[in-house]
Amino acid sequence: MKLSARNVIKGRVKTVTPGAVNVEVVIEIAPGVEVVSIITKASAESLALAPGKEAYAVVKASSVMIAVD
After folding, report:
1. Which of 20, 23, 29, 60 has most Cβ atoms within 10 angstroms of its Cβ?
2. Helices (H), the chain
3. pLDDT at residue 4, as a whole number
4. Residues 6 or more apart from 68 whose CB is under 8 A from it?
């Protein structure tokens, strides 16, 4: 797999929750650390996502904002 995105985070699928059109996918990247994504049902089916399967969270953005209180 080759990607232009610089932020590729390996983990395991924790949950796959289908909705009417989209699917919420939770990937655990470390114990207690999760990344959540909403993808289309077609994409989830194409990737054969299921709990326990190894997957990557790929983040590509032109900016990432940081905030503090």
Report:
1. 23
2. 41-46
3. 80
4. none
Q: Are 29 and 10 contacting, i.e. CB atoms less than 8 angstroms apart?
A: yes
Q: Specify whether the CB–CB gap between 53 and 13 falls below 8 A.
A: yes
Measured CA to CA, the distance from residue 37 to residue 25 in angstroms comes to 5
Instruction: Name the strands in the sheet holding 33-40, side by side, starting at the edge strand that comes first in the sequence.
Output: 33-40, 22-30, 7-18, 54-59
How do the pLDDT tens digits run along the chain, 69 residues long? 788 888 899 999 999 999 999 999 999 999 999 999 999 999 999 999 999 999 999 988 777 777 898
Structural tokens at position 20: 């009417």
| Nearest CA-CA partner of 48 in 29, 23, 28 | 23
